[in-house]
Specification:
Layout lengths: L7 H87 L6 E7 L2 E6 L2 H9 L22 E9 L4 E4 L13
Antiparallel strand pairs: 1-2, 1-3, 3-4
Length: 178
C-alpha cells in the first residue's frame, strides 16, 4: 500500500478544478435543457401544423365528395335533357310542320315572346299586369303599336318554308295603280 501526501496547494488546485468542472457541467446542462426545450416547442408546433393540415384535408375531402355528388347529379340531369332534346328533334323532324302555329306576344308593337299557343301568351300577359279575366278582342286593321299587349298568330307555310301571319288584312288599293 502506498501512502500519498497531499499538500494544501494540491487540495486548493483540486477544489478549483472541481468547481470549474461543476460550472462547466451546469453550463452544458443548461444549454442542453434550453436546446431540449427548443426542440420540444418545435415538435409541438409541427404537431399542431400537422393536426390543422389533417383537419383541413379532411374538410376539403368532405367538400370534394359533396361536389362530386353534385357534379354527378348535374351530369345525369344533362344527359336526360340531352336525350329529351334528341327525342324532340327526331319527333320534330318526322312531323310535318304544315298547319302548325305560333303566337307572338307584342308589347306596343314590339315582339315580346313567342308561344306555342295563344293561351300561353295570354297567361304571360297576366304576369305583366293584365287581368287574368281580360277579354281579348280582334285588333282588326289598327296598328300593333296602339296596343299595350297584342297577340298575333303565325301559321307554318310549306311553300315558303316559314311562318306567315294568320290574319292578313285586306289589301288597300293603291292610288293610280292600274
Amino acid at each position: 500500500m502506498a501512502i500519498r501526501i497531499v499538500t494544501r496547494a494540491r487540495i486548493t488546485q483540486l477544489e478549483h478544478d472541481a468547481r470549474t468542472a461543476h460550472e462547466q457541467a451546469q453550463e452544458i446542462s443548461g444549454a442542453a435543457s434550453e436546446a431540449f426545450g427548443e426542440r420540444v416547442r418545435e415538435l409541438y408546433a409541427a404537431t399542431d401544423r400537422a393536426e390543422r393540415t389533417e383537419a383541413a384535408t379532411s374538410e376539403v375531402g368532405v367538400i370534394l365528395s359533396l361536389a362530386m355528388k353534385e357534379l354527378s347529379a348535374a351530369q345525369q340531369e344533362l344527359l336526360l335533357k340531352d336525350i329529351e332534346i334528341r327525342r324532340l328533334r327526331e319527333e320534330l323532324a318526322g312531323a310535318s310542320m304544315e298547319g302548325r302555329s305560333l303566337t307572338v306576344l307584342l308589347h306596343y308593337g314590339e315582339p315580346h315572346a313567342v308561344y306555342a299557343s295563344r293561351e300561353d301568351a295570354h297567361a304571360d300577359t297576366a304576369t305583366h299586369g293584365m287581368p287574368a279575366d281580360h277579354v281579348w278582342k280582334p285588333c282588326g286593321e289598327h296598328p300593333a303599336a296602339e296596343f299595350k299587349w297584342r297577340c298575333e298568330t303565325f301559321i307554318y307555310n310549306a311553300a315558303s318554308n316559314g311562318f306567315r301571319l294568320a290574319y292578313i288584312s285586306a289589301a288597300k288599293p293603291m292610288e293610280g295603280a292600274a
